[in-house]
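User: Teach me something about this protein's shape.
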Amino acid sequence: MSYYNFVDRPSKQRIQEMADQLHLAVSPDAVHLFLDFQLAYREVEKNYESLVASFDLSESRFIILMFLYYADDKQLLPSEIAHKLGVTKPTISKLLRGMEQQGLVSSHQSSTDKRVRDIQLTPAGEKLLRTFLPYNYRSSSLLFEDFTDEEKQQFAHLLRKLLKSKDKIQQLEEDYHEHRKN
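Assistant: First, the predicted structure itself:
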């Protein structure tokens, strides 16, 4: 993922001026808040990705290790992992090949269906997971250590509200595509 740090971010006044030129009824406060949200997310994500990478992991690989750790017999089918991660089968195949080359997982013929292979967490994968988890948990704690309990609860509440609103963006995109057809 490319990282960009836009230092010339528009002021609320500049946002309003552009909206006026385009005859749009928008809230400069909302647009500016969205830009602040994007910047905060990118900065946190950049630092987290760096932490994860220092363990020779990606966020996806870490999550796969967690899925396997909690699975029965510490194994899952590739299709189950793809579904849980929300990715395509070709994407999961590539991820799992890399993890197998790293020795984090192994694959073997399924005992229930000879046409498929089970993916199992290896001792090396579990060791890496146990080494990384304290740093993962600590990073989360550090991120919110300056928040009061009330602020954390409020932030969680606001994030849930934000997630409910995300579908409105998808609807906006669908409206745009429908408009283009006409």
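Now, about its shape. Helices lie at 12-21, 28-53, 59-70, 78-85, 89-102, 123-143, 149-181. The two ends are 35 Å apart (CA to CA). If you'd like, I can walk through any region in more detail.
User: That's plenty for now, thanks!
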